[in-house]
Write a structure and sequence with these properties.
The complex is a heterodimer of chains A (263) and B (317).
Chain A (H helix, E strand, L loop, with lengths): L4 E4 L2 E3 L21 E3 L1 H17 L3 E6 L4 H10 L4 E5 L9 H12 L6 E5 L10 H9 L3 E11 L4 E8 L2 E8 L2 E5 L11 H7 L4 E4 L12 H4 L2 E8 L7 E4 L4 H11 L4
Parallel strand pairs in A: 1-4, 1-6, 4-5, 5-11, 6-10, 7-10
Antiparallel strand pairs in A: 2-3, 7-8, 8-9
Chain B lengths: L2 E5 L2 E2 L2 E2 L1 H13 L1 E7 L3 H10 L4 E5 L10 H14 L3 E5 L2 H14 L3 E9 L3 E6 L4 E7 L5 E4 L14 E4 L12 E7 L13 E5 L9 H10 L3 E4 L1 H5 L20 E5 L5 H4 L7 E6 L6 H4 L2 E4 L2 H16 L1
Parallel strand pairs in B: 1-4, 1-6, 4-5, 5-11, 6-10, 7-10, 13-14, 13-15, 15-16, 16-17
Antiparallel strand pairs in B: 2-3, 7-8, 8-9
Helix pairs in contact in B: 3-4, 5-9
Classes of the chains: A alpha/beta (263), B alpha/beta (317).
The structure holds flavin-adenine dinucleotide and adenosine monophosphate (AMP).
Adenosine monophosphate (AMP) binds next to helix 1, strand 4, helix 3, strand 6 and helix 4 of chain A.
């Protein structure tokens, strides 16, 4: 039996850039860094493509984000996904994780799928909560932090290795399910030239809040259930002492640790 | 005084340090109530009372920890409904954040993750963008659900009433749909938990090999430290992935962080920048890690680290 998979991807500021908040509405200043496909989501796309190669079925990209996130969707399609859904609406600006998960869940209710795959964390918000929230909203098994995924579409079962602090848990569930993946799971492919050309013609459906029957008051800054009251730049660390090893580098560190009362 | 619920992290009743930190924070802003889920709760009562728990809610059914996250959400949600606490505090671990997220959705509450302190009015202080920015935020809807990073507060002993209340809960069907069939332990035993350790010694690509990490472990052991690694080191298979420090690994905030052969890329700094004291050894004087280091040595770690281990061992006598 084929597996139909939706992969949720987010557009984030490049993690190589220093990030800032906007002073006026205290949201992430997305203009100050190049927007890119959240790196961890590439592992989700790769895993979906591997499952598709093994079982057949379709891979659909789901992204909530501004107009500009269209570029991120094209990148995901150029890796090999078949089609995409783009949730875009100005009222979504400033959405917290609770609202993001509501919008993604509403979009997922419109499609048939066996698996939803997400990255385990977005590199901007770093909350690592959206996958669990989706499992809650859709009443589906939470198969998160997977470093290995085995699906059996005929038996309608799924087994993952869920990464833990001291190793991993073997977790089983039925399908459909919500999966999040850690970066250890695979090595994402680079888009080929052919893939990039093909992506231009792949279908992207755009959905507004009205299409999802969501009240604009419940999302975005207006609907956020938490607010940022204030923010400040942490003072930069004082420059320390740097010495060159002349055969006594270890001793010098030990001396330093004594002055700091670590020894 | 209104209650603040603290979800206790424990292994068969052995309470993790972070949970004692959270109890201390809770007692500062209300009446601290511990929530202990899973077998072994009885073993935890003495510690929790000693660190200020007024009430200890105990749900000890083993079934509550044999599915991913859902049952814990049900226990907390039930307590939310019955006691209308002022807030729920959960450790900012991978699973803690998932519990917080699902509880937020289930109880229609706002959630804040990765707080490093809680101020009056239940304002959460967060350190974001790798520690470069400090944000103060508050939950405006429902019960504030806040996850707090390990090592954010020093646990303070203050004896609480420690009244034990047994909780039983009916699970929703979806609570048990992801079944934990087996725990596989790969950890290297005997060292402190990476997220909680007072000292962390990390190795990077410069350590060169899995064998090279013995030198990192030896230094760690003489300092009673946890061992960490950069992503380059875990990706190269020098050290297991769960020890990765940084943006997509653990965030650590120890008293002392020693970086060996780590360049200090922005994503690595994101996970260790708030360490109190940073020491770095790198043979490249231009490595960005030196911008953060309180004390840096430009040199070969294969010479410097063993000498340091020996110095520490002999000075400790
Ligand atoms: C989205 C994203 C997320 C990421 N998340 C993380 C993360 O969570 N954690 C993380 O660490 N990285 C992360 N990275 C990777 C990060 O960008 C760097 O690639 C990585 O931190 C580099 O590791 P390193 O410093 O060990 O290796 P390198 O950058 O290769 O540095 C090795 C250093 O060792 C020094 N050296 C070599 N030999 C010796 C010797 N004998 N003695 C002394 N010094 C020596 C070299 O001078 C060099 O400075 C992430 C990247 C991205 C894009
Ligand atoms: N706006 C979004 N659109 C699509 N997917 C998202 C969005 N935000 C988060 N996700 C998914 O949820 C994962 C975890 O994000 P977070 O909980 O924000 O750390 C990401 O890796 C994405 O797969």
């Amino acid at each position: 039996m084929p597996l139909n998979i939706v992969v949720c991807v987010k557009q984030v500021p490049d993690s190589w850039a220093e990030k800032k908040l906007n002073p006026d509405d205290r949201t992430l200043d997305r203009a100050s860094a190049d927007p890119v496909l959240n790196e961890l989501d590439e592992y989700g796309i790769e895993e979906a493509l591997r499952l598709q190669e093994a079982h057949g079925g379709t891979v659909t990209i789901l992204c909530m984000g501004p107009e500009k996130a269209g570029e991120t969707i094209r990148k995901a399609l150029s890796m090999g996904a078949d089609q995409a859904v783009h949730v875009v609406d100005d009222a979504l600006h400033g959405s917290d994780a609770v609202a993001t998960s509501a919008a993604l869940a509403a979009a997922l209710k419109r499609v048939e799928f066996d698996l939803v795959i997400l990255g385990s964390e977005s590199t901007d918000a770093r909350m690592s909560v959206v996958p669990a929230m989706l499992a809650e909203r859709l009443s589906l098994p939470q198969m998160t932090f997977a470093k290995k995924v085995d699906a059996d579409p005929d038996a309608r079962t799924l087994t993952i290795h869920r990464q833990t602090d001291d190793g991993y848990d073997v977790v089983t569930s039925s399908l459909p399910a919500v999966v999040s993946v850690v970066e250890k799971i695979n090595e994402p492919r680079y888009p080929s030239f052919k893939g990039i050309m093909a992506a231009k013609k792949k279908p992207v459906e755009t959905l507004s809040l009205a299409d999802l029957s969501l009240d604009p008051q419940t999302v975005g800054l207006a609907g956020a259930w938490s607010t940022v009251n204030a923010f400040e730049q942490r003072p930069p660390r004082q420059a320390g002492t740097v010495v060159t090893d002349d055969g006594d580098g270890g001793t010098k560190i030990a001396d330093f640790l004594v002055t700091q009362k670590f020894l | 005084m209104s209650q603040i619920l603290v979800l206790i992290e424990h292994a068969n009743g052995a309470v993790k340090k972070v949970s004692l930190e959270l109890l201390t924070l809770a007692a500062r802003h209300g009446s601290a109530s511990a929530v202990v889920i899973g077998p072994g709760a009885d073993n935890a009562v003495a510690d929790l009372t000693r660190f200020g728990a007024a009430t200890i809610y105990v749900a000890s059914d083993a079934a509550l920890i044999s599915s991913v996250v859902g049952p814990k959400v049900s226990v907390l949600n039930k307590l939310l409904g019955e006691h209308s606490p002022a807030a729920v505090l959960i450790a900012s671990t991978a699973e803690g954040k998932e519990i917080a997220g699902r509880l937020a959705v289930r109880s229609s509450s706002g959630v804040i993750t990765d707080a490093v302190d809680i101020e009056d009015g239940l304002v959460a202080v967060q350190s974001v963008f790798g520690g470069s920015t400090i944000v103060r935020s508050a939950v405006t809807t429902g019960t504030p659900i806040i996850t707090v990073r390990p090592n954010s507060t020093t646990p303070v002993e203050s004896s609480g009433a420690g009244e034990v209340v047994t909780v039983s809960v009916e699970l929703a069907a979806n609570d048990t749909s992801a079944v934990i069939a087996e725990h596989v332990v790969e950890a290297k035993g005997g060292r402190p938990d990476l997220a909680e350790a007072a000292t962390v010694v990390s190795g990077g690509r410069g350590v060169g090999s899995a064998e090279g990490f013995e030198l990192v472990e030896k230094l760690a052991d003489c300092l009673d430290a946890a061992v960490g690694a950069s992503r380059a080191a875990t990706d190269s298979g020098f050290y297991p992935h769960q020890y990765q420090v940084g943006q997509t690994g653990k965030t650590v905030s120890p008293q002392l962080y020693i970086a060996l052969g780590i360049s200090g890329a922005i994503q690595h700094r994101a996970g260790m920048q708030t360490s109190k004291t940073i020491v770095a050894v790198n043979k490249d004087a231009e490595a960005p890690i030196f911008e953060l280091a309180d004390f840096g040595v430009v040199g070969d770690l294969f010479n410097v680290a063993p000498q340091l281990t020996q110095e520490i061992t002999s000075r400790k006598g």
